[in-house]
Specification:
- The chain has helices at about 1-20, 25-55, 65-90, 100-130, 140-155, 165-185, 195-200, 210-220, 220-245, 250-255, 265-275, 280-300.
- The chain is globular and about 65 Å long.
- By secondary structure, the protein is mainly alpha-helical.
- The N and C termini lie close together (about 10 Å).
Length: about 300
């Protein structure tokens, strides 16, 4: 019953944000959109802060990074392979494009901010503990507010009805199927996580500021930490794939970017894949951003 209530809260906050867009005072909306790009860092700080307080209760914490890296590599490769064969079977030919090293390094710099936020949260908690001071940060309430902001952002996403064609819709479908295939693949390398949990961990699509908190609330801190690091690694791998093969196989690169393809990864997609594939990125990111919290919550509750 608790899991249903938590899932309900997430969906309600997302829907409220979506429905109240354009109805809020312009001053509040402007403040919300200025806050949104930085709020995920606050969430990461809070997650790391809570993690530092409970790390002693986690058995074999050294396996978290190893498991997260394996899952992220397997799901990313699964997505690329699935998308490649899907579109190849349809007779869609590879494309040509150009890439920019400056944008590549800028993207990696943005990812580094996420790791800095995690480190700051962790060491802040350790420092307070050394002074025998206890501070509780409720990351769940922060996530609910973040979902409200995401709802606002989705309402202003410039989606066009002409983009809703079956070829574009195949991109998020490939991301879903490829991620599940990657979960199957990761079984060969991971023994400490059961298959059902691997499927759950595969459905974050790079939405790291959501998956870690949801799985921690519904399951446990160890799986929540793996989910967080897995989706962070997936975003890094997506950037690498974007510049390695995005100019040649743009749909595969966009599918790998997952939920981030409509926001964080969009400038890279535009530059590496070309303006013709912005509709693919927007539609795929929009769908996966909506599905990720639902699928992760439902699978975590089972």
């Amino acid at each position: 019953m608790q899991s249903i209530w938590l899932i309900f809260q997430l969906l309600v906050c997302l829907i409220i944000g979506f429905l109240f867009a354009r109805r809020l005072p312009s001053m509040i909306e402007k403040a919300a959109f200025k806050l949104l790009p930085y709020f995920s860092y606050l969430l990461l700080f809070a997650i790391a802060f809570e993690f530092a307080q409970i790390i002693d209760s986690i058995t074999q914490p050294q396996l978290i990074l190893k498991s997260a890296l394996i899952i992220s590599v397997c799901t990313s490769l699964g997505t690329v392979i699935c998308c490649y064969f899907f579109f190849k079977s349809l007779g869609i030919q590879p494309t040509h494009g150009q890439v920019s090293l400056s944008l590549f390094f800028k993207s990696l710099l943005n990812i580094s901010y996420a790791f800095i936020a995690l480190c700051l949260g962790y060491f802040a908690a350790i420092s307070l503990t050394s002074f025998h001071y206890t501070l509780h940060i409720n990351s769940w309430n922060l996530l609910l507010f973040f979902m409200f902001l995401i709802g606002l952002d989705l309402a202003y996403s410039p989606l066009d009805r002409s983009w809703m064609n079956w070829r574009i819709m195949l991109v998020p479908l490939c991301a879903i199927i490829g991620s599940i295939f990657g979960a199957f693949l990761s079984i060969l390398f991971i023994e400490n996580i059961n298959f059902k949990d691997l499927i759950m961990l595969s459905q974050g699509y790079g939405f790291y500021s959501m998956s870690g908190i949801v799985i921690t609330e519904l399951r446990n801190a160890e799986l929540g930490s793996i989910a967080l690091m897995n989706d962070l690694f997936r975003e890094i791998i997506a950037i690498l794939i974007m510049y390695a093969v995005g100019w040649r196989y743009p749909r595969s690169a966009i599918a790998t970017a997952g939920a981030t393809s409509m926001d964080v990864s969009l400038p890279m997609i535009k530059q590496a894949c070309g303006n013709d594939f912005i509709p693919h990125a927007m539609v795929s990111g929009f769908i996966l951003s909506l599905l990720a919290p639902i699928l992760v919550s439902v699978l975590a509750a089972l």
